Amino acid sequence: MALVSYLLGDCPGCGAENKFGNVDVYSDHVYLGCGRCRHNERRYLPPLKKKVLYLDQFFFSHAVRGNEAQFVEAAKRIVELAALQLLVVPYSSVHEEETHQWAGHKELLEFIKNTARGYEFAPAYEVEQTQMNRAFDAWRVGEPTGYSPLRQDAFHDDLDVWDGYFRIEVGEYRGDIDLIRRLKAEAIDGLIDLFPGWRESTATFEQDIRIEHDAAAKGYLRAFGTYLTRMAKGDYDALSDSPIIATVVRNLTYRFPRDEPHNGRMKRVIDFLASDHFANTPYHDIQARMYGTLKAMVKAGAYTNRARSIQRLSGFYYDVKHISTYAPYCDAFVMDNPMAEIVNRSTVDLAGRYGTRVFSRNNWDELLAWLDELRSGLTEEHRAGLATAYPRMQVS
Ligand SMILES: [Zn+2]
Q1: How confident is the model at residue 167 (pLDDT cuts 50, 70, 90)?
Q2: How far away, in angstroms, is 17 Cα from ligand 1 center?
Q3: Residue 336: exposed, middle, or buried by beta-carbon count in 10 A (0-12, 13-18, 19+)?
Q4: Please, which pLDDT band fits residue 102 given cuts at 50, 70 and 90?
Q5: Same domain, yes or no: 33 and 94
Q6: How close is the Cα of 37 to the center of ligand 1, in Å?
Q7: For the chain, what is the domain count?
Q8: 7 CA distance to ligand 1 middle (Å)
Q9: Residue 22 belongs to what H/E stretch?
Q10: In this structure, are 18 and 108 located in the same domain?
């Protein structure tokens, strides 16, 4: 006996009237059963190739307020494409971190999770560590310096599956101690305060990028050093309350083969942190380029009005985090105009270098066209799959 979700008709096994139908959908097939006997069937569904779209806070906060027609319209199409198994709009740990700062964040989080339909990215710190691990392994054995993002860097689960009937609730990400620090430290005023100094700077773009990478490397080493010092003093709380970046270097030291002498390992990790392999990890590459590009824009005379700069760049730190962590794993990314302006410049070139389409208010019609194109790719085979998997779904 099965719990039938959609009754389709009489049971082919026991003949019971109107007791047979779909029980649930599992990745690549529908499981059918009978409410009276143990008769069951499986109907296999066609393979899927879903696109990944990232919506950042800017999109969700407008869509949830519902007062801007263009956002409501796009949200409607996106939700439909997700139901049609053509698109996923995964939820990320950065959405959660950022959203917690908002008044009325429960409603916003609920909306983001509903749109995500149970699909979520691996937490940001994990994506960062995975990229570091892969780049370090490649550096250690002398492989080329380029980094090819793989979906499994950023997702634990296969995205190209048919959704089951009961959307799995996306849980909350484990509290990140870095988050609390960032919330305190990263007031946008601090960024704007740097602008006068940037305008005086004579460093080239390449030098600025180098400065960013060096600062990131030092950040890892400093956090790891603090952790080691605390442990050496017997402060074992360091095991649980150190910032997540303190463990990045430690994790790299674990990746040597057994026969590698212990005393040379730290030196090797430090060498890696100065390498192109490190600089080419997408997270650091995009982050450094976004900062370097903003700096170049400031030097060239942009962002001179303080109040207006604060307004335009209010979400800058989180936007950089959303984009640098997850954009390489997305087919398209919706962001606000100031961010799109930065990532579309040749010095970041997100679309050219990572194949990610960039949409913002400035090219909203292109977003709608992209969504329409996706919708028009609905094949007869796919429609038949939808009818088998979701018998009540109305597909026009
Ligand atoms: Zn039966």
Answers
A1: low
A2: 9
A3: buried
A4: low
A5: no
A6: 4
A7: 2
A8: 12
A9: strand 20-26
A10: no
The helix-helix angle for 105-116 and 57-65 (nearest 10°) equals: 110
Give me ligand 1 centre to Cα 161, in Å: 28
Compute the distance from residue 42 Cα to the ligand 1 centre, in Å. 15
The string of pLDDT tens digits covering residues 228-285 is 999 999 999 988 888 888 889 999 999 999 888 888 999 999 999 999 999 999 999 9
**Same-domain status, 102 and 14:** no
Residue-level pLDDT at 57? 80
Based on the domain organization, do 299 and 364 belong to the same domain? yes
DSSP 143-190: --S-----HHHH-SS-SSSBPPSSPPPP-PPPP-HHHHHHHHH--HHH
Q: What is the pLDDT of residues 298-312, one digit of tens each?
A: 999 999 999 899 888
Q: Does residue 218 sit in the same domain as residue 254?
A: yes
In which domain, by residue range, is 20 found?
6-44
What's the 31 CA to ligand 1 centre distance in angstroms?
Answer: 14
pLDDT band at 170 (very low <50, low <70, confident <90, very high): low
Do residue 225 and residue 343 come from a single domain? yes
Considering the domain boundaries, does residue 1 fall inside one? no
For the chain, the distance separating the N- and C-terminal CA atoms, rounded to the nearest angstrom, is 34
Token duo for residue 272: 């890696």
Top pLDDT among 189 and 34 is at 34
Q: What is the average pLDDT across 108-115?
A: 81
Residues 122 and 30 in one domain: no
Å from CA of 312 to ligand 1 middle: 63
Can you say whether the dihedral through the CA atoms of 240, 241, 244, 248 is positive or negative? negative
If one compares 73 and 30, the residue with the highest pLDDT of the two is: 30
pLDDT attached to residue 113: 82
Ligand 1 center to 32 CA (angstroms): 11
Ligand 1 geometric centre to CA of 18 (Å): 9
Report the separation in Å between the CA atom of 390 and the middle of ligand 1, taken as the mean of its atom positions: 21
- pTM exceeds 0.90, yes or no: yes
The Cα–Cα gap between 388 and 273 comes to 52
